[in-house]
Write a structure and sequence with these properties.
alpha/beta; N-(1-d-carboxylethyl)-l-norvaline Dehydrogenase, domain 2; Rossmann fold; five-stranded parallel sheet; 15 helices; 14% strand; 3 domains; 439 residues
């Protein structure tokens, strides 16, 4: 396929980019392409999201509404639920969820369903790029097979590539345009075209030999974090039994200028990537008769952390003559990381459910999550309660699950009866140290 005319159109910004999935990955991509002069069509199956965007509203806390409104008004961004408009796009970037099933098996239904929705509208010369995290071979073995059902052939009629998302929601230092993009193509033309497209919006690209390698890169990034977080989570328990503060150990260790990288413990893993992605590789490895022991062990350690926190809380209440059953517990933070409103796979949700299962009366406060709606795995239906000196004093324990910068930790410690800190958020507070327990 002669891609030179297409490359010229990308250079001249005479090129329409379709982004499928307007969530934490898709929306930043849309805005970056629009900023760089491209026309974007955004697709989502949720009409409520599209309606909010059309009203000039942003449903993602760290994405301001102003540029969304401006790009829609200028005609540069068109949000829609109508997949027939995919025929208007020159490139289609798929940013859809890849969750795990009940038995930790990959759930590729969003990729397959999206591919099936696009098949009737696929056209000659179109570029399709998968960005969703998945196991090596998905782009070539799963998505390509779905897209070719319409009669067009990858590499001959349309181009196909994989470029893993690398978003870090809420990280102002590394917005979409500042993060290098890994790109792997089904063939050389696909690689060249995808590379040119992404080079037009990001600081640099890293081309790899094929889509499978690009898929493996993303898994390595997240497995690396999962394994190291599991290590410090395990050391937290070991050192805790010895009366040693793991946080102090890490702070001292990271002064070594080589050979050490700090990772931090917590109440469990959250977000769409780190708790899920390693199991995509362990599942695929079984196809080759390989047991991924490091990945499985890290998963076991990390998923056990919420239960460890509940045991610590229960033990401390018992020490004070209070049972966990019927205790009033305030959870501070339900987002999976500080200063964002993202609750995907958040350990805070698991903590609430574990505490409720033990008979505790649980409420939460999170300035970024005013309501916990029905979700795929959780149905808590709770509202964030206000904080005040009086309300803090009324709880038997305050459990810090997410260390939002908005929280006044001195006031929390001052008025709470007991503070269980899973994030070292109270490290600098000297007043009321006898009320603080790290878990």
């Amino acid at each position: 396929m002669d891609i030179e005319p297409i490359l010229r159109r990308i250079h001249d910004r005479d090129y329409t980019v379709g982004v499928v999935g307007l969530g934490y990955v898709g929306m930043p991509l849309v805005l970056e392409f629009c900023r760089q002069g491209f026309r974007c069509i955004g697709f989502d199956i949720d009409p409520a999201k599209v309606e909010q965007l059309e009203r000039g509203e942003s449903y993602i806390q760290h994405i301001p509404a102003e540029p969304v409104t401006a790009f829609i008004r200028e005609g540069r961004f068109i949000p829609t639920t109508n997949y027939s408009r995919a025929a208007e796009a020159d490139a289609l970037l798929l940013c859809v969820p890849t969750p795990l099933g009940r038995h930790r098996e990959p759930d590729l239904s969003y990729i397959v369903n999206t591919g099936e929705s696009l098949v009737p509208h696929l056209k000659q010369g179109q570029l399709v790029v998968l960005e969703s995290t998945t196991y090596p071979g998905t782009t070539d073995e799963v998505l390509r097979e779905v897209l070719e059902r319409g009669g067009l052939v990858a590499g001959k009629d349309f181009l196909l590539a994989y470029s893993p998302e690398r978003e870090d929601p809420g990280n102002a230092d590394f917005s979409t345009g500042k993060i290098p993009k890994v790109v792997g193509g089904f063939d050389e033309a696909s690689l060249q075209l995808a590379d040119a497209l992404y080079r037009s919006i990001v600081v640099s690209t890293v081309c790899v030999s094929d889509t499978r390698t690009a898929e493996a890169v993303k898994l390595l990034e997240n497995i690396f974090r999962s394994v190291n977080i599991a290590l410090v989570n395990e050391l937290k328990i070991v050192y805790g039994k010895m009366g040693i503060d793991i946080w102090e150990v890490i702070e001292a260790a990271k002064t070594k200028p080589f050979g050490f990288m700090p990772f931090y413990p917590g109440p469990g893993l959250g977000g769409h990537c780190i708790p899920i992605d390693p199991f995509y590789l362990s599942w695929k490895a079984r196809e080759y008769g390989i047991s991924t022991r490091f990945i499985e062990l890290a998963g076991e350690v990390n998923t056990s952390m919420p239960a460890h926190v509940v045991r610590c809380l229960s033990a401390e209440l018992n020490r004070r003559g209070l049972p966990l059953k019927d205790a009033r517990i305030l959870l501070l933070g339900v987002a999976y990381k500080k200063d964002v409103g993202d609750v995907r796979e958040s350990p805070g949700l698991t903590l609430i459910e574990l505490l409720q299962a033990e008979g505790a009366r649980v409420e939460y406060n999170d300035p970024y999550v005013p309501h916990l709606p029905r979700m795929r795995k959780h149905d808590l239906d709770l509202e964030s309660v206000p904080l005040s000196p009086e309300s803090l004093a009324a709880y038997d324990a305050v459990l810090i699950a997410t260390a939002h910068a908005d929280f006044d930790y001195l006031e929390i410690v001052r008025h709470a009866r007991l503070v269980v800190d899973t994030r070292n958020a109270t490290a600098l507070i000297t007043e009321g140290r006898e009320k603080i327990v790290k878990a």
